[in-house]
Design brief:
globular, 15 helices, mainly alpha, 260 residues
Length: 260
């Protein structure tokens, strides 16, 4: 949560403003609130709720990154996954069509990425424009938004997202009473700390934090590369990322600082 604010210059500079990344930041803020609530629920032994909110957190980060990228022509013009997906192709065509109605709209999107939500407002609930989370992850992977995480589809979708989906779909073993049965707790209807479940939750939270910060750094990459103060601020956070065991985030941060 604290990384994004420190990446913007203290004084507004030309072409560097939070509006440039507003599509992502809207979802980023919501993701933080979900993650925070998730943590509280898990510490209160409401594990199923905690895991459900973790999946929501991950999805918010992924969707925010997707809309951010789609608002910029450099990504829209290089979107092989969308081009090969029936609904993705329709969505991309709709965005391009909407932009083409006004010659200044593309420039506006580059300056205020959140304006893309105006473009998709009429179709956001239409099934024919809805893209699966798996395809969104594949497209973000093609755009290198998860770099340096190896094989993002396997790691993010197959391992983490699908695992968390069992909580969302209330598989018997994943509801809290099911967890107590597996742990051989005598008081099935009493909320109690389950050490192994809390450990499982903590590791899951850590993995999602790592994915979220990597995504954040890649989305903000151009700002980091343009501004020396952003690089210095990020450098100050690297030790904390390393201490938390956020392997990919720490690695990505070091790479961006070296390149800057």
């Amino acid at each position: 949560m604290y990384i994004a604010p420190i990446l913007f210059p203290d004084r507004e500079q030309k072409d560097i403003s939070w509006h440039n990344k507003s599509a992502f930041l809207v979802y980023h803020w919501e993701a933080f609130l979900h993650a925070h609530r998730s943590h509280i629920e898990a510490l209160s032994a409401n594990y199923n709720v905690g895991f459900i909110l973790l999946r929501s957190t991950l999805e918010l980060i992924i969707k925010g990154a997707f809309w951010e990228c789609l608002s910029h022509s450099e990504f829209r013009n290089n979107s092989k996954v969308l081009d090969g997906d029936k609904n993705g192709k329709k969505l991309k065509a709709k965005v391009i069509e909407t932009i083409s109605l006004d010659t200044v709209e593309e420039e506006k999107l580059d300056r205020i990425s959140g304006a893309i939500f105006d473009k998709i407002a009429d179709i956001s609930e239409c099934p024919q424009y809805r893209i699966s989370i798996k395809q969104i992850i594949n497209q973000l992977s093609q755009w290198n938004i998860f770099d340096p995480i190896p094989n993002p589809q396997e790691k993010i979708y197959n391992e983490i997202y699908r695992r968390l989906s069992s909580d969302v779909h209330v598989i018997p073993d994943r509801i809290d009473i099911g967890k107590r049965l597996i742990a051989q707790e005598e008081r099935l209807f009493e909320q109690r700390v389950l050490q192994e479940t809390l450990r499982e939750y903590s590791l899951e939270l850590l993995e999602i934090m790592d994915i979220a910060i990597v995504t954040e750094l890649n989305i903000m990459k151009d700002i980091i590369m343009q501004n020396h103060q952003s690089q210095l601020n990020l450098k100050e956070r690297l030790d904390i990322l390393s201490q938390l065991g956020l392997e990919y985030s720490s690695s990505k941060g070091k790479i961006l600082i070296e390149q800057g």
